[in-house]
Write a structure and sequence with these properties.
heterodimer; A: alpha/beta; Rossmann fold; six-stranded mixed beta sheet; 10 helices; 37% helix; globular; B: Transcription Regulator spoIIAA; 2 domains; 4 strands
């Protein structure tokens, strides 16, 4: 787990030539993507480009028509039930709407994966539920509430705490900051960065939030026309001349766009 | 777990704990035991040094247990020290160090108090439901009045759609069930009446029982299970997804848009179903009387004409729309009570079916008294 131990970067997820379609339409047409250990990967693309589709395919919720996905060195197609479960225990997923179990309290939601996978004393589970909750910036007062009593931001935090319940090696976040105000979204970004540092997590984040991409993401992968058209850090994205990337990262709503406007000068390509 | 995760040695005043192995979620259970045992064994030490150097992996579970161990010793006044912790884990330990575990407030009374409180809550809930039904009846009357004044506002398409669901699509199953019930009653009646040589009175029994009571009751119970539950689930799901609120903000009255067409569909549909169901039951009864009891169809019809008159038929039919109203109102009230969770949707759907069947039977009893007193 030690960072910078001299080895080449460890690949946690490897997608090769992934094809996914619905009916006649092929949404993903040969996606190649690597996710390295310990990085925060921001995954962007236009609405309906298939970002969530790729995420759901990696975590096994959608069937693919071709290609291979390897997670922690395990080819997911070749995995039997036991191997698949072993991999599933090592990832946590934050769904867009939180997907908290609506009939369980927050405490039961957090303890659900622990109860299923580990044989722990109730005292330890109670303490850990509270510890996870405090790690995501909430406190004991929400423990006995039910999900419908929480605000949007709190729901996302609780869902993140649940995704982290088993101390996964990798977390998938589906638009974690959508629907949050800029302050909460900023807090959430900081939280993800902090947790990534403290827990040594790998984070796969589907997002539209340019600020998240700027502040927390180590690397960005861009999905368009059914394939990954670019992957690299923010500088690479800003330097790219691909029209979609230009529009996305240097458009009106981007920081580069604002800077250009403020300077009153045209955006000059480096 | 064969390997010890924590080895304790005492060195004069100082307790030395050597941690080893993987301090992770999979080992959390044995680790917790070892940690609590160590804390108990050395309750009186003044100094504790924990060597984490040999720990291969550490996650939140292990880090929390380490933190718990430290807190245990600290609370007894011992000086603690952690050595050999890898730099990578420092941030995690610091993070957990900040977490405050306060005992959650327990303000529960005794079991008796809890039980009494549950009884009280349930009784007041029955009262609430009754009030909610009255409230819905009132709101429905207002909505009906408004629609009657401006008939163009009425959602005719919705009514037809609901009528298709509760009426037309329910015809086969309801006719099948009433047919079978009629057949069974006929068979049982013939079997027992034959002992007295009174087979022929089976026709009287079937005629009166089916037309006055059973036809309408069975149809209403079926409709409560089939359509009442569907109403509750539909309205509840709409409530959950804020669709009802959306309607309200657009200036529509949910009662007028959602509830009124549904209840009118029941009020129109249930009498038709009752009529069809009663005929099917009579047919089933007649068929069994012929095949099993040897009562010729001509004789059956002749006897039926003598046994019943138009009043018998009217009694059943008059009850149908009122029972339909009860089923519809209860279903809609329960649907509107659904809160955010899927569990509450299930609870209200169950409550809807149970309550409407109960009320239909109570109403039937009240009608029996009423018709007896006016001599019908």
């Amino acid at each position: 787990m030690a960072a910078g131990n001299g080895k080449a970067r460890d690949t946690v997820i490897e997608a090769r030539g992934v094809k996914v379609g619905f009916g006649e339409r092929l949404v993903l047409n040969g996606v190649d993507l690597d996710v390295y250990r310990g990085e925060i990967l921001g995954f962007v693309g236009g609405s309906g480009a298939g970002k969530s589709v790729l995420m759901r395919t990696i975590i096994g919720l959608l069937p693919k028509r071709g290609g291979a996905i390897t997670v922690f060195g395990q080819d997911m197609d070749a995995a039997d039930d036991e191997q698949r479960q072993a991999v599933e225990r090592r990832w946590g997923v934050l769904f867009q709407q939180g997907a908290l179990f609506s009939s369980l309290t927050i405490k039961e939601n957090l303890q659900f994966p622990m109860r299923e996978y580990l044989d722990l004393s109730q005292r330890l589970m109670d303490e850990l539920a509270l510890a996870k909750l405090e790690m995501v910036g909430l406190d004991a007062s929400v423990l006995d509430k039910i999900p419908s009593e929480l605000s949007g931001g709190m729901t996302k935090r609780v869902a993140l705490a649940r995704a982290l319940a088993l101390d996964p090696d990798i977390v998938f976040l589906d638009e974690p900051t959508s629907g949050l105000d800029p302050i909460s979204a900023g807090d959430f970004d900081t939280l993800i960065a902090t947790l990534q540092r403290t827990l040594g997590l790998t984070v796969f984040m589907v997002t539209h939030d340019l600020d998240s991409l700027h502040t927390v993401c180590d690397r960005i992968a861009v999905l368009a026309e059914g394939r990954i058209i670019a992957a690299g850090n923010m500088d690479t994205m800003l330097a790219s001349e691909h029209p979609w990337l230009k529009a996305y990262f240097r458009g009106k709503r981007s920081r580069a766009g604002h800077a250009a406007e403020a300077a009153g000068a045209a955006c000059v390509a480096p | 777990m064969a390997d010890a995760l924590l080895i304790d040695t005492t060195d004069g005043e100082t307790l030395r704990l050597a941690a080893a192995g993987a301090w992770t979620s999979t080992n959390a259970q044995p680790l917790e035991r070892e940690i609590d045992a160590a804390a108990r064994r050395h309750a009186a030490v003044k100094q504790v040094a924990i060597d984490m150097g040999a720990v291969e992996r550490l996650d939140t579970f292990g880090a929390w247990l380490l933190e718990r161990l430290l807190r245990d010793f600290k609370s007894r006044g011992a000086a603690t020290e952690v050595v050999g912790l890898k730099q990578d884990y420092r941030a995690l330990i610091d993070e957990l160090h900040r977490i405050k575990i306060e005992a959650p407030p327990h303000r529960r009374g005794g079991r008796l108090v809890e039980a009494l409180a549950a009884v009280g809550r349930n009784i007041s809930r029955v009262g609430d439901t009754f009030l909610a039904i009255l409230n819905m009846l009132g709101a429905l009357s207002v909505a009906f009045g408004r629609v009657a004044a401006h008939p163009s506002r009425f959602r005719f398409t919705s009514l037809v759609h609901q009528l298709d669901n509760v009426g037309w699509k329910g015809v086969p199953i309801i006719m099948l069930i009433t047919f079978l019930v009629g057949a069974i009653i006929s068979q049982q009646g013939i079997f027992h009446f034959r002992k007295f040589g009174a087979d022929i009175y089976v026709v009287d029994m079937i005629g009166i029982l089916v037309l006055r009571e059973l036809g309408v009751l069975i149809v209403c119970i079926m409709v409560a299970g089939r359509s009442g539950s569907a109403y509750t689930a539909e309205l509840g799901a709409m409530k959950m997804r804020e669709e009802v609120d959306a309607l309200r903000t657009m200036g529509f009255d949910p009662i007028e848009v959602l509830v009124l067409p549904r209840i009118l569909a029941l009020i129109i549909g249930v009498p038709i179903l009752t009529f069809l169901g009663s005929i099917a039951a009579l047919y089933g009864g007649g068929l069994v009387a012929w095949l099993y009891g040897g009562i010729d169809p001509d004789i059956f019809l002749q006897r039926l004409k003598e046994a019943i008159d138009i009043k018998t038929f009217e009694v059943g039919m008059i009850k149908a729309p009122f029972m339909a109203l009860v089923v519809g109102v209860v279903a809609c009230v329960e649907g509107m009570k659904v809160k955010g969770s899927s569990e509450s949707l299930g609870l209200q759907t169950t409550a809807s079916v149970v309550e409407s069947i109960f009320l239909v039977i109570v109403l039937d009893g009240l009608f029996a008294i009423f018709f007896a007193s006016i001599g019908m």
